[in-house]
Amino acid sequence: MHRDIFPRPENGGKSSFLEFCKNCAILIPVLEGGINGIYHKGSLLAAVKKGDEISWQSFYDMYKPLILLKGSDLRLNQTEKEELVQLVMLSFFNTSQTFCYDKSKGRFRDYLKRIIHNKACDLMRKRHDGEISVEDIPLTVEKMLAEGENRWEEEWKNHVLKQALEDLRSAVSPLVYQAFSMLSLEGMSGKEVAATLGITANAVYVYKHEALNKLKTLIAEVDG
Amino acid sequence: MNFHISIPELDSYRNCDCSSLKRIYCRLHLLLCKKCEAKLSSLKESDEFITSIRKNLKNDEV
Question: What ipTM was estimated for this complex?
Answer without folding.
Answer: 0.89
